[in-house]
Each structure stands twice: as C-alpha cells, then as structure tokens.
C-alpha cells in the first residue's frame, strides 16, 4: 500500500475560513501543496508560505496523490469535480480525493461512484466538526465514508488537519453522520436559547445560570460555547447562520430519505429558516438566541 506521506505532492481546493486553515496545516505537515480557489486573493497567504497556485481544479489535480476539497454545498462540489477543467479532467487513477464539505449524502455517494468509474480515483466524503478553531489548530473530527483502503493510504493527509477519524462505511456514510451532528447542534442550540430566555424573563443572571447548568447533566459544547456568545452578544460569524440553515436542510432531507420520525429536526430546520429570514444569515448561528429572545419579548 502506497501511503500518501510528506513530501508527496497534494492539492487543496476551496480556501474559505475552514479550507484555508486546513490547507495551511497540510503545508506545515511537509506536503508539496498546490491550491486553487474561485478567487485567487484567498490563496495569497498560502502562496507566500510556499504553496503553488493552480489556475483550475484540473491543474491542481495533475500529479497530486491526494486532493482535499472544502466547498459550500453540493452543486459546488459537483462543479469542481466534474465541471469544465474540473478535478476529473486531471486526476490520475489511484488518487485519493477527500471532500471535507458538508453536502447531501446521496449525491456524495454518486460522485464517488462516478469518479471511480470514469477515472479510477477514490472519493472519500469526510465532513468535519470542530469549527474554525479546530481547522486552525488541526484538531478537527472527521466523519469518513468511502473505500477503507483509500482512507488508510491517505491517513497522513487526514492527520495534518484533524485529530479524530472515524470510518463509518461506504460512500455517503460520512455525510449521514454529519447530518446527525448538525441536527444535534441546532436542536441543542434552540433548547439553550429558550433556557436563557426563560432565565432572563424570570430575573436570573444569565451568566450565573449558565454556570449552574454547566455543573450538571445539561452540560454540553453548546452550553459551554454558544450560550456564552449569546449572553455576551459576540456573534460575529464563526459558523454563519445561513450555513447552518443549509446543514439543517440536509439533515431534514436525510431523515426523509431514511423514513425517520424526526420532529426535532423539523423544528430546528424551521427555526434556522426563520433566523436567516430575520436578516441574521451573516451572523453566527448562535444568533438563534437573539431570535428566541426577540420572540419572547426581550430586548437585546
């Protein structure tokens, strides 16, 4: 088995907040990195650090033994893989393509089949959890679907960006797990928002209430982090509300596709629709706390 290890030539496509941080960690790990993004400006820091700019996804894919993608949504992944000058036009047989995007599970599985049939390359779906801080620190959790041997070969690439790796099954399995993850985050955030609104209306100090709840069974990542942001009003985007809306739409679709009774998913998805429609789509998803407070007759 030929492991993709430094200083192998690799590529990274999609240099948003998450992708740029992940690509930087791939370069720091010692890989020879080529990068591509729709707008070149986001690649400037990576180029200054030694990465090579590729004018198209196909150019980035040529000669790369592993290719990372981090893109906004399903159509973006399809375009980068199979559009004009896409990855499929340049990728070699045996290459491992890793899609860190959060997209729909069924298309993810279809993309993997198509890339293998047309080019002999393996596509792993590996949505991540951990947010911008995890991307920056290289501590992301990766939920992986696809060929197990391809995952084993690309393990050093994964280790450059994350800390926890779980291979969940065939193509699309990682995306199903990520849909479950986002549902739980959104539903918990709604419950936390309601709890904080209750405390405020009853005259409790919100930060004292949060501290009390962190000491018991209600303790969670959302209570520890998102609740603090809601209380302090520090809602500049780490993860934008409009992206969480996209993800809860995916969660709702996954539940429907598998015939799951999912009232929590339905409610969380509708609340994210309401949040974005209230004009807060560019704020952090924790701004859900502001919407719940507003609907509860609270100011600020």
Automatic annotation (TrEMBL):
Residues 172-287 form the 3-hydroxyisobutyrate dehydrogenase-like NAD-binding domain. Residues 9-169 form the 6-phosphogluconate dehydrogenase NADP-binding domain. Keywords: NAD, Oxidoreductase, Signal. Pfam families: NAD_binding_11, NAD_binding_2. Its EC number is 1.1.-.-. SUPFAM superfamilies: 6-phosphogluconate dehydrogenase C-terminal domain-like (SSF48179), NAD(P)-binding Rossmann-fold domains (SSF51735). GO terms for molecular function: oxidoreductase activity. It comes from the Bacteria. Residues 1-23 form the signal peptide. PANTHER family: 3-HYDROXYISOBUTYRATE DEHYDROGENASE-LIKE 1, MITOCHONDRIAL-RELATED (PTHR43060:SF15). Belongs to the HIBADH-related family. This is NAD(P)-dependent oxidoreductase.
């Amino acid at each position: 088995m030929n492991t993709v290890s430094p200083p192998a030539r690799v590529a990274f496509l999609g240099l948003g907040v998450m992708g740029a941080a992940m690509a930087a960690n791939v370069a720091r790990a010692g890989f020879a990195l080529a990068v591509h993004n729709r707008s070149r400006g986001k690649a400037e820091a990576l180029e200054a650090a030694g990465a090579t700019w590729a004018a198209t996804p196909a150019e980035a894919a040529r000669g790369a033994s592993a290719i990372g993608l981090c893109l906004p949504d399903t159509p973006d992944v399809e375009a980068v893989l199979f559009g004009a000058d896409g990855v499929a036009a340049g990728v070699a047989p045996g290459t491992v393509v890793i899609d860190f995007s959060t997209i729909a599970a069924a298309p993810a599985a279809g993309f993997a089949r198509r890339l293998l049939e047309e080019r002999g390359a393996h596509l792993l779906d590996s949505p991540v959890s951990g947010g911008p801080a995890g991307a920056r620190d290289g501590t992301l959790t990766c939920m992986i679907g696809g060929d197990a041997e391809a995952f084993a070969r690309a393990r050093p690439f994964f280790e450059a960006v994350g800390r926890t790796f779980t291979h969940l099954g065939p193509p699309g399995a990682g995306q199903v797990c990520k849909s479950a993850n986002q549902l739980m985050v959104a539903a918990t955030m709604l419950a936390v928002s309601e709890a904080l609104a209750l405390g405020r209306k009853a005259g409790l100090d919100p930060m004292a209430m949060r501290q009390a709840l962190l000491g018991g069974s209600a303790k969670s990542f959302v209570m520890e982090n998102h609740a603090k942001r809601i209380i302090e009003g520090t809602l500049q985007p780490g993860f934008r509300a409009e992206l969480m809306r996209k993800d809860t739409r995916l969660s709702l679709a996954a539940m429907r596709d598998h015939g799951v009774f999912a009232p929590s998913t339905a409610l969380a998805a509708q609340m994210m629709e309401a949040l974005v429609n209230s004009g807060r789509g560019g704020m952090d998803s924790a701004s859900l706390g502001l919407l719940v407070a507003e609907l509860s007759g609270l100011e600020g």
